[in-house]
Design goal:
The chain folds into two domains: 3-27 and 166-217, no CATH class; 37-164 and 218-311 and 340-353, Vaccinia Virus protein VP39 (Rossmann fold, 3-Layer(aba) Sandwich). 37% of the residues lie in helices and 22% in strands. It has 14 helices and 16 strands. The strands form three sheets. Strands 2, 3, 4, 5, 10, 14, 15 and 16 form an eight-stranded mixed beta sheet that branches. Helix 8 links the parallel strand 3 (109-114) and strand 4 (139-141). Helix 5 (56-72) crosses helix 6 and helix 13 (311-319) runs antiparallel to helix 14 (324-338). It is globular, with a radius of gyration of 21 Å. The protein starts with a helix and ends in a 15-residue tail after the last strand.
Length: 368
């Protein structure tokens, strides 16, 4: 039993069942025993690998996407370059390296990183060290709300999937929320359905009319972040690019646990030692931003998005002078990022912009 599980069991005995969202919050961000508080989770030695860790091409293209939008929105100076959940800083470092030939862009940048993990903040500082003379010193924040008010270019790769979700089931007795329980003292933690309660208010009207048997996940934290991004874009201009695994509009329970690059069958086992995540509902994020006045483009499959940005041309450049091993590495990375059987369709990209801003590169149409 992990130290965090001991604390959670004590809480369950004192206050009763907890929501799935509350369990995720504690498991990931408990001040002492939370997953993201204790150690870096990324890379071959961690529990999962993200797109920036697979290839420099990913971060380079996202950096150029930001540069392109900055130029077409009138090159504001200053402009905030923000990353939510920057991991080890690989993406933002690749983005800055790819845009280094536009010194005016780097001069205008004010880099702000939203990161909860003290350990990962240290890794990000190391990754940004080579750019100390090119950009203003980076600033770190615990939450998006702490950012200054200014034009915004925001990147969020695999950020929203880690935000807590509430889970609901439409039963013959109405909508009921799924909760975490200790069936009996010492027994493994399990799931149960709570009686109808005020949390049902998280469901919108159309969702409430869904047929019996429908399963739904709602992330109030994710919707709040999307709404805050939308507000900032409307007031100050700019664009945001959200890349994550999820669906355009979906239903179902997707909570999963990963440890050592393998899926853990029971997400309630060893809280604090395994990564928890859920698929992102891009349609709800789009609506949350649109309600604040922003425009939403996509989502589009990650593979199609990277193709539109020219990832194959970049791969050709990287392999032109490489040896056989180098070429094989680039081709392998390209396949992982683009192949429908890998990350190509499971991962989606969504762009948010100011209502009067230009259409972002890589997105053919507004979100429906």
């Amino acid at each position: 039993m992990t130290p965090l599980e001991t604390l959670l069991r004590r809480r369950l005995r004192l206050t009763g069942p907890m929501t799935v969202a509350a369990f995720m919050q504690e498991a990931l961000l408990h001040p002492e025993h939370g997953y993201y508080r204790r150690q870096p989770a990324l890379g071959a030695a961690g529990d999962f690998v993200t797109a920036p860790e697979i290839s420099q091409m990913f971060g380079e293209l996202l950096g150029l996407w930001c540069l392109d939008y900055w130029e077409r929105m009138g090159a504001p100076d200053p402009v905030l370059l923000v990353e939510l959940g920057p991991g080890r800083g690989t993406l933002i470092a690749d983005a800055l390296r790819a845009t280094r030939l536009r010194p005016a862009f780097h001069k205008a940048l004010r880099l702000h990183l939203v990161e909860a993990s003290p350990v990962l903040r240290g890794r990000q500082r190391e990754a940004l060290a080579p750019f100390a003379e090119q950009i203003a010193p980076a600033q770190w924040h615990d939450a998006l709300a702490a950012l200054p008010e200014a034009p915004l270019l925001l990147l969020a790769n695999e950020f929203f999937d880690a935000l807590p979700v509430h889970q609901f089931e439409h039963t013959g007795e109405g909508w009921r929320e799924r909760v975490v329980v200790e069936p009996q003292i010492g027994a493994p933690l399990g799931f149960a359905l709570a009686p109808p309660g005020p949390q049902i208010g998280l469901l919108d009207g159309p969702t409430r009319e869904a047929p019996v048997g429908t399963l739904v996940e709602i992330s109030p934290a994710g919707l709040a972040v999307a709404g805050e991004i939308g507000r900032r874009l409307v007031q100050h201009g700019g664009a945001a690019l959200l890349v994550d695994y999820g669906y355009g509009e979906g239903q179902g329970w997707s909570l999963q646990a990963v440890q050592g690059h393998r899926r853990v069958e029971n997400p309630l086992i060893e809280p604090g030692l395994v990564d928890l995540s859920a698929h992102v509902d891009f349609a709800r994020l789009s609506r949350a931003a649109a309600e604040r006045g922003a425009r939403a483009y996509g989502p589009v499959a990650q593979g199609a998005f990277l193709e539109a940005l020219g990832i194959r041309l970049r791969a050709q450049r990287l392999t032109r002078d490489a040896d056989a091993g180098g070429r094989a590495g680039v081709e392998q990375a390209l396949a992982r990022l683009l192949d429908p059987q890998e990350m190509g369709t499971l991962f989606q990209a969504l762009a948010l912009t100011a209502p009067d801003g230009p259409a972002p590169a890589g997105f053919p149409a507004l979100a429906v």
